Amino acid sequence: MVARCASSSFPPSHSGCANGSSTFTVTHMDLVTVFRTFDLGEAQVIRSHLDGAGIQADIEHENSAALIDVAVGGVRVVVSSDKADEARALIEQAK
Asked: β-pairing, 2-5 with 24-27?
């Protein structure tokens, strides 16, 4: 399940949507892990790279990364399953 802002910005910030709206649309989609790391900064760079390429990405465990890195296997960059192959190819090209 993913929360999206009414303006389609993804993901919404903690204070609401980028356009100031607090209206979210919740959709169900299959999310797939395309990148895993123990370095939150690295995950944020990958997410930004994917977002810049038009692939909506999110970081799972982003807010708790410092506390439970080892327990959950680090932070994961996830995308919708229909974009996973494209995302993995972009990540591989960026290395």
From this structure: antiparallel
The distance of Cα 54 from the centroid of its chain, to the nearest Å, equals 12
What token pair was written down for 46? 């990958």
Strand-by-strand arrangement of the 57-60 sheet: 31-37, 75-80, 57-60
What are the domain boundaries of the chain? 2-94
Q: pLDDT tens digits for 3-49?
A: 454 444 445 444 445 555 544 444 556 999 999 988 888 999 999 99
Give φ, ψ of 37 to 5 degrees: -155, 160
Largest pairwise CA distance in the chain: 37
Fill in the amino acid letter for 55.
I
Q: In angstroms, rounded to a whole number, what is the distance separating the alpha carbons of residues 26 and 71?
A: 28
Q: Where are the alpha helices (H) located in the chain, listed in sequence order? A: 40-52, 65-72, 84-94
Other beta carbons within 10 Å of 22: 10
